[in-house]
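Hi everyone, sorry if this is the wrong subforum. Our group has a chain we'd like a structural model of before ordering constructs, and none of us has done structure prediction before. Sequence below.
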Amino acid sequence: MNLDHLVLHPVAGFYLGACSAQIKKNGKTDLVVAELCKEAITAATFTQNAFCAAPVTLAKFNLAEVQPRALIINAGNANAGTGEQGMIDAKQSCDWVANELGCNSNQVLPFSTGVIGENLPMEKFQLGIPQAIANLAVTSWKDACLGIMTTDLVPKTVSKIIEIDGHSVTITGMSKGSGMIHPNMATMLGFVATDAKINQPCLQKCLTDAVNISFNRITVDGDTSTNDACTLTATQQADMPEINSVDSEAYQQFAEEINSVMTELAQMIVRDGEGATKFVSVIVEGGNSQQECLKVAHTVALSPLVKTALFASDPNWGRILAAVGRSEISALDVDKIKIYLGDVCIVENGGRASDYTEEAGQAVMNETDIDILIQLNRGDYAETVWTTDFSYDYVKINAEYRS
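Answer:
Right subforum, don't worry. Here is the predicted structure as tokens:
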């Protein structure tokens, strides 16, 4: 895959190395190691799936004890549903990285993605880890983003240089994911690095808030992965005063940029959804609460009948109406609800809009990017969820995932 068109700014103090350890059956790049400078701090969020993978459990434990000096990421095997052996293998991979880099094993955070229920091929890790580490460089983002992909068709990266109070700050990040995508946490793997100077409480709040409005607002198929994780590392190498208050203007500027990066990465996952042909924004306005708006949005976004109609470019507006109606919102007055496809009103006063035409609805459904706007007209809250259609290819990709 040619990535020459990507401009990925190196982040001082954040080194990446990648190789093919033959974990993937196709022999492509599948093992990534990141080395963090000693000043770096890292924040993280993880899946809330009760069957969380061994690397998630170990990464959470290690991060609670000490700031990491390294990350190890593999594709092709999730190391989930592997019981005690999975924990032994995850720790062994951290031991090997620590031995190579001269740090403690609990200073390494492991991440895995791929098939659930299979043990890690440890001999491949033992041989691959030194190869990945030999390739460590601040310029290796392109190789790394390929190394974390599974069913992804395209790499997902964002990189920018910003100014905070006149000081230059770099932010570069990557994510993977195209199926098994649904909150709650961040339904994917994501790794973002910045050279900003910022303390740990501010960094963690920034990440948590950013994930909540980005990765927690996407859904492809309603399946929350066992392996979801997102990290934000600040290497402290920028020439700037430390950000140490969430009330400061510098924090607000930084948080706004991180929100932008995370949202862009999240939307890339939706656009690369398995078999996806449509990018759909489900916007709910006028709800009594954030939770109410999200409930309606997710009910519509997850409806197989809505998603298949989107794939067929069929303006079957009744499917959207039905999904809103079954979203279990108490005392919902259907006569007050308005529903739009793009700028075309399709539902009002409890039924089809009086001036709606099939031709107008069809014109919207023929687009690749589609907005579904639902106005509940019962409160002041609004939320947006991004999703995809369901295509023949989605079934094929997931039916043949292990072959």
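For your construct planning: The chain has a mean pLDDT of 92. Residues 249-271 form the longest helix (23 residues).
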